[in-house]
Amino acid sequence: MKLCMIGTGYVGLVSGVCFADLGNDVICVDKDISKINRLKKSIIPIYEPGLEELVKKNFNAGRLKFSTNLGESVKKSDLIFICVGTPTKKNSYEADLSQVFSAAKKISQNIKSFKIIINKSTVPVMTGDKVEKIISKKVKKKLFSVVSNPEFLREGEAIRDFIYPDRVVVGTLDKSSNKKLKSLYSPLISKGARYINTSRRAAELIKYASNAFLATKITFINELANLCEKMDINIEDVSIGIGTDKRIGSRFLRAGPAYGGSCFPKDTRALIDTAKKSRTSLSVVNTVINSNEKRSEILLKRIKNLLNNKIKNKKITFLGVTFKANTDDMRESACLKMIPYLNNKGAFIRYYDPTGQKHEFNKLKNVEYKNNIKNACELSDLIIIHTEWNEFKLIDLKRIVKKRNFIVYDMRNIYSPEKMKKLNIKYFGIGR
Questions:
Q1: Residue 378 lies in a domain
Q2: Which of 178, 198, 218 is the last residue in one of the domains?
Q3: 263: annotated active-site residue
Q4: What is the pTM of this model?
Q5: Which of 95, 106, 158, 204 is the most exposed place for a label (fewest CB within 10 A)?
Q6: 3-state secondary structure the chain
Q7: pLDDT band at 404 (very low <50, low <70, confident <90, very high)
């Protein structure tokens, strides 16, 4: 099939490359000329394991193309995927849909034969209705169909999630479009993915509901971790104990920092905004958002206690600053609150992340990026394990720190408390 992916961000690029790998002809479109030129050279704008190899493979095979010409790309394609960003509006919970509507308008100007327009961006309920209305101003309804096909890709595991999905959700009551989408996804369905056909509005809500539920699980286990610390209970015992219940499941039950990234924060807010506009209360989701926003404050309070409230002139190292491992995504990372706060209190901050230096901290004085673990940790008073990168799991801390009485605050519980005790290292985890 001939596909056009509008937007080469996380969703558009990963989906486009994977569709090409399934044998489709795919054009990935973006208005950023320099980004498109880099992609043509297989220079990837995001960190995602395995993506660079797939881009090279399919680009060289001629199945994958990159373009800045949206009009021509639409004309050459049968299925048009809208994969643009839907960030939260400033000082609001409302999703900014300007990029979605702009894409819809440009698509409408280039439809000469029947096209299926698939909204893959995460959008509030009824966005598909609005996209349909925009396009119908220029195009007869018999020449297009608007479908909702939300993505469920986890950063760091996106390629695997695309190839081996739990389910494929397609929101359309148009039998012809449904048949086309089912055929597109048939290689994944044959591997065991469940194909779920719903109304367009239901598909839009499924995405938000999924992310809100997972955010709730993270927040729930984080709050239980707070209780465990007061009651001398290991949160990991609790996680295992409840996670083995098939009704609950073990995934997303690991205590740690506040959830972050490109999805959970903005999607929970957008869901609340949708409910508000519909005069409906989602008190559970509201509580989740409020609890998550307070999470960094709780962890900072713990840091202050570990340092006996003496933060000034302390050397503090952060190992990992992205919101999770296997991604370079800094959006809504807990570090964005923690590091400026500690820096403002007079601490000297060093950090190391496998994905390199982060511009978010460039303007902060006494915040320094180190290009290896040893240089980051040497002579530190406090080492904070913020992100669970594999390379942090077997560090010989005593050897590289070269200082007595340093403290390790393991926010991901990747180390054994018993082992740390044997090594005579002052060690603290989450919910332990």
A1: yes
A2: 198
A3: yes
A4: 0.94
A5: 106
A6: CEEEEECCCHHHHHHHHHHHHCCCEEEEECCCHHHHHHHHCCCCCCCCCCHHHHHHHHHHCCCEEEECCHHHHHHHCCEEEECCCCCECCCCCCECCHHHHHHHHHHHCCCCCCEEEEECCCCCCCHHHHHHHHHHCCCCHHHEEEEECCCCCCCCCHHHHHHCCCEEEEECCCHHHHHHHHHHCHHHHCCCCEEEEECHHHHHHHHHHHHHHHHHHHHHHHHHHHHHHHHCCCHHHHHHHHHCCCCCCCCCCCCCCCCCCCCHHHHHHHHHHHHHHCCCCCHHHHHHHHHHHHHHHHHHHHHHHHCCCCCCCCEEEEECCCCCCCCCCCCCCCHHHHHHHHHHCCCEEEEECCCCCCHHHCCCCCEEECCCHHHHHCCCCEEEECCCCHHHCCCCHHHHHCCCCCEEEECCCCCCHHHHHHCCCEEECCCC
A7: confident
